[in-house]
Amino acid sequence: MNFELTKEQEMTRKMVRDFAENVIQPRAIDLDVKAEFPEDIFKEMGKLGLLGIPFPEEYGGVGGDTITYALAVEEIGRVCGGTGLSYAAAVSLGSSPIYYFGTEDQKQEYLVPLAKGEGLASFGLTEPNAGSDAGGTQTRAKLEGDEYVINGEKSWITNAGYARSITVTAVSGKREDGKNIISAFIVPADTPGLTINSNYDKMGVRASNTCEIILEDVRVPKENILGDPEKGFGQFLYTLDGGRISIAALAVGIAQASLDRALAYAKERKQFGKTISNFQAIQFKLADMAMEVELARNMVMKAAWLKDQGKPFTKESAYAKLFASETAFRSANQAIQIHGGYGYMREYEVERYLRDAKLLEIGEGTSEIQRLVIARQLGC
Ligand SMILES: Cc1cc2nc3c(=O)[nH]c(=O)nc-3n(C[C@H](O)[C@H](O)[C@H](O)COP(=O)(O)OP(=O)(O)OC[C@H]3O[C@@H](n4cnc5c(N)ncnc54)[C@H](O)[C@@H]3O)c2cc1C
């Protein structure tokens, strides 16, 4: 076994860390307060090739692997959970399904500009009445001549307000056994009948753009169906497996930031004539945080490695997502505790880490759903 990163992976990590610390970190508090999506930062990230890390050069990407991409998500998440979430969603949910399942024409038209960082894409699966039970989708797509006509509603779709295209799932027919066939469709964001509202007032990840989408007689050419029309459900399960690695990486970033801040503060803050890092109660908190961050990162790297090797990774990505998101929440909570009253104040940032970390236990499959995925993989 080899736990060392390659030279390229190390270089990308350093480059993203520099960018995150110099460009994103100084604005993180402000983006959170104003709930502002940093469009300009995404343009810069595009120029650096970050939006194309896991895609081949022939499709506008930089030909990196999942490990490199996970390292980039961690570094961005370390300074701003909201920017990290939008970055992870853009690559894993927006672009990746087109790369995995798109036709050559779809890749040229939609993936190439995304990988080059010339725009963002979204993935619209969740609906007001279909969340964890994504198979219960109520959006409908009907073939009329050479076009599909789509009607329905999607909730909490990341980046949709800034997207060039949105891949939406919809029921397109019935199987012989009476079950719904769910297909995925690429819908350009300027298609008539598509309304995108971004009015949510969120607890955390406030720099991330989150939208409600209404589809009223939205017409797309039948060529816009993504991949196998009969296998839309399986396709989005695969997409979510990959996305979970990036959510887990984002969680590691927040957990690491919590540890870094708590450790630095514990070494400075004096009570009872000594720094609080001298108290064993504080040391034990820091020791547990450090151990859990290390474990979570190893799980992310293993899931990413399995994906890169073309091996099954469903169980490992669920392990990583579940453990890392719960680690991030615990670490952020302990970081606030170690900061005492200062930790409750916005300027110390650890309270934001907690608010941002909470989303990671919900999005891309709640913790309960991760446990279900793992149990199924165990044969339950
Ligand atoms: C900021 C944000 C960004 C998001 N971005 C996107 C996006 O880009 N694209 C997208 O499609 N969706 C997105 N989502 C939606 C997200 O994936 C869902 O919120 C999530 O899957 C949970 O669905 P739900 O909210 O409907 O909860 P529900 O499914 O209603 O769950 C409610 C509770 O019941 C539990 N529960 C449900 N079923 C079971 C079960 N079988 N066993 C045990 N417990 C169960 C859940 O774990 C949860 O605790 C986003 C959400 C947020 C908040």
TrEMBL record:
Q: Which residues form the Acyl-CoA oxidase/dehydrogenase middle domain?
A: 122-218
Keyword presence, Oxidoreductase: yes
Identify the residues that the record assigns to the Acyl-CoA dehydrogenase/oxidase C-terminal domain, covering every copy. Answer: 231-378
Identify the InterPro entries for this entry.
Acyl-CoA_DH_CS, Acyl-CoA_Oxase/DH_mid-dom, Acyl-CoA_Oxase/DH_mid-dom_sf, AcylCo_DH-like_C, AcylCo_DH/oxidase_C, AcylCoA_DH/ox_N, AcylCoA_DH/ox_N_sf, AcylCoA_DH/oxidase_NM_dom_sf
Recorded hits in Pfam families, A to Z, give: Acyl-CoA_dh_1, Acyl-CoA_dh_M, Acyl-CoA_dh_N
Top-level division of the source organism's lineage: Bacteria
List the PROSITE patterns.
ACYL_COA_DH_1, ACYL_COA_DH_2
Ranges for domain Acyl-CoA dehydrogenase/oxidase N-terminal? 6-118
Q: Report the family membership.
A: Belongs to the acyl-CoA dehydrogenase family.
Q: What is this protein called?
A: Acyl-CoA dehydrogenase YngJ
List the top taxonomic levels of the source. Bacteria, Bacillati, Bacillota, Bacilli, Bacillales
